[in-house]
Amino acid sequence: MPADDALTVAVRVKPGVARARVGGCFDGPHGPALIIAVNAPAVDGRATEAARRALAGALGVRPAAVALRAGAASRDKLFLVERPGPELSGLLRRLRDGSGE
Q1: Distance of alpha carbon 58 from alpha carbon 82, whole angstroms
Q2: Which residues have C-beta within 8 Å of that of residue 1, sequence separation ≥ 6?
Q3: Residue ranges per structural domain of the chain
Q4: 3-97 maps to CATH 3.30.1200.10
Q5: Stretches in the chain below the pLDDT threshold 50
Q6: Alpha-carbon distances of 74 from 19, 87, 95, rounded to whole Å
Q7: Is this model's pTM higher than 0.90 or not?
Q8: Tens-digit pLDDT profile for residues 70-98
């Protein structure tokens, strides 16, 4: 897939939380990362899958349009969003700022 047909999103996953949410910023190894807190535990990829679906929901895209690029066994992950619209960059920025929930 050509690079301009995808958006790379750095994410910090917080597994096993009581209240799932998407929003906030974490200064991670991949740069400013969107925080995604999920109910799923960090076992057998369940937190990663929950984070992938939560990211898709927050960005308003199909879950199939979001794929893990790096960080399967880490809390710091890179997801690839296929064919992002121009509005996704602004939405992502608002979510990182905590104002897009």
Answers
A1: 15
A2: 80, 82
A3: 3-97
A4: yes
A5: 1-2, 100-101
A6: 21, 28, 21
A7: no
A8: 999 999 999 999 987 778 888 888 898 87
